[in-house]
Automatic annotation (TrEMBL):
Domain (Amidase): residue spans on this chain: 24-311, 340-438
Signal peptide: none
Gene3D superfamilies tied to this protein: Amidase signature (AS) domain
Entry GO CC: endomembrane system
Pfam families from the UniProt entry: Amidase
Annotated protein name in UniProt: Amidase
Lineage, opening ranks: Bacteria, Pseudomonadati, Pseudomonadota, Alphaproteobacteria, Hyphomicrobiales
Stored SUPFAM superfamilies: Amidase signature (AS) enzymes
Length: 457
């Protein structure tokens, strides 16, 4: 058994059957961290001894015949923004350099309660505010496929650690493609659930117990090397938690087993006015052809009659208003409340348009981002897309559309381009349909190819 690259599901089964111990599972991942983290710089705040004690306790519980849950003894990491008791939560921001929460946030607490062994945090963009993971506290994370390229952001440390075999899964946040873009860049899977599906409580350092201002568009979701792992972690972390009052009481269903011939898939190699590399657009079209050959009903998407560039601008404005509300002192000219409600009404129109579109389709297949992993650069530097400069700020555009609308979307690996870099494709579903969306992704895996191990790991 190749422990470091085994799936979460397989690790849990092997530990439960006592084919391997929790300590052996931990040691295999620590060895991978020791071998590769110096170059990749994905893992931060490593709690080696604490994790070993937790793994020993998991093994002792099994000897006593006690099962701790579906993750019994499985090691894992968390993006460095989840509040965790006894471990720093910094979001790569110097004022939070030594912040340790008094208690676990709901996501960390549920994963631990399921038997998971938290090893470390993973690197982020400072304050989660960029599509490269670089910050003054821990430096820059590189892509395991090519160390000269970014792993993406803001969940770049999570995606890189998973791709490099340092952890079987992680949980990130996604306000503007921050799970899906790094997952695509690193060749792993990432799920952004429907808005208000997974608790946002404890999803950012909050030493003063301030009022939570981020209440829209930001979502918490898993990253892993397989759809089955995404489904397992999603089912553990989703649902009402008693702390985030925005959570919808929608049942979390099991992932269904679906046949491609029963599906209706719309595909869009690009969106109007959005740049994309030929390789990514061609990958969308190629999978669409294969889906059709497999018996699915496939059609080129007649996208909603929306100004998607305006949607992105409106989404940015909403984020700006939420950030304004989080400031300790109001600005000299605060945003009028009427503008907030106007922005929500504008967003409602977009949500309803996408709802209507997806009533006719099981899912939309489209790009995750306009390019594959790009070279490390200063934020704001134009990005080459097939040799042509494109705005840096368009990097998350394909994903951010669905943060604005709140629909669930996932990134799935689909081979590599001519430079040997992973291509990720996006699958978008109806609101509250994460389980079905995951089932569609699993049915498509024979076509997309699934996770590939980066050379040298």
């Amino acid at each position: 058994m190749d422990i470091a690259f085994s799936s979460t599901v397989d690790l849990a089964m092997a530990i439960a059957a006592r084919k391997i111990s929790a300590v052996e599972a931990l040691d295999a991942h620590l060895a991978q961290i020791d071998s590769h983290n110096e170059a990749v710089n994905a893992v931060v705040s490593l709690d080696r001894e604490g994790a070993r004690e937790r793994a020993k306790k998991a093994d002792a519980a099994l000897v006593r015949g006690e099962a701790l849950g579906p993750l019994h003894g499985v090691p894992f990491t968390l993006k460095d923004m989840h509040e965790t008791a006894g471990m720093k939560t910094t979001v790569g921001f110097p004022p939070f350099a030594d912040y340790v929460a008094k208690e676990d946030g709901p996501v960390a607490g549920r994963l631990k309660a399921a038997g998971g062994v938290l090893m470390a945090k993973t690197n982020v963009a400072s304050m989660l505010s960029d599509w490269q993971s670089n910050n003054p506290l821990f430096g820059r994370t590189s892509n395991p496929w090519n160390l000269e390229r970014t792993s993406g952001g803001s969940s770049g440390g999570a995606a890189a650690a998973i791709a490099a075999g340092m952890t079987p899964f992680d949980v990130g946040t996604d306000m503007q493609d921050s799970i899906r873009l790094p997952a695509a860049f690193c060749g792993v899977y990432g799920l952004k659930p429907t808005e208000h599906r997974v608790s946002l409580a404890g999803a950012f350092p909050n030493p003063g117990d301030a009022a939570r201002s981020v209440r829209l568009m930001s979502c918490v979701g898993p990253l892993a090397r397989s759809v089955d792992d995404l489904s397992l972690i999603y089912r553990i972390i989703a649902g009402s938690d008693g702390r985030d009052t925005d959570l919808a009481p929608v049942p979390v269903e099991d992932m269904p087993k679906l046949e491609l011939k029963t599906l209706r898939i719309a595909f869009a190699p690009t969106f109007p006015g959005f740049p994309v590399t030929d390789a990514i657009g061609s990958a969308v079209e190629n999978i669409a052809r294969q889906l059709q050959s497999a018996g699915a009903t496939v059609e080129k998407a007649n996208l909603p009659k929306l100004d998607l560039h305006d949607d992105l601008a409106q989404g940015g404005a909403l984020i700006g208003m939420m950030m304004e509300a989080a400031q300790p002192e109001p600005p000299d000219e605060p945003t009028p409340v009427s503008r907030w409600f106007e922005a929500l009404a504008r967003r409602d129109r977009s949500i309803l348009a996408w709802n209507q579109f997806l009533e006719k389709h099981d899912a939309l297949l489209c790009p995750v981002a306009m390019t594959t992993a790009f070279s490390h650069c200063e934020p704001g530097t134009p990005i080459k897309v097939d040799g042509k400069d494109q705005s840096y700020w368009m990097l998350p555009a394909y994903g951010a559309v669905f943060n604005y609308s709140g629909h669930p979307a996932l990134s799935m690996p689909c081979g590599q381009n001519s430079d040997g870099l992973p291509i990720g494709l996006q699958l978008v579903g109806r609101r509250w349909s994460e389980s079905r969306l995951l089932g569609i992704a699993r049915a498509m895996t024979p076509l997309t190819g699934g996770f590939s191990r980066p050379p040298g790991y």
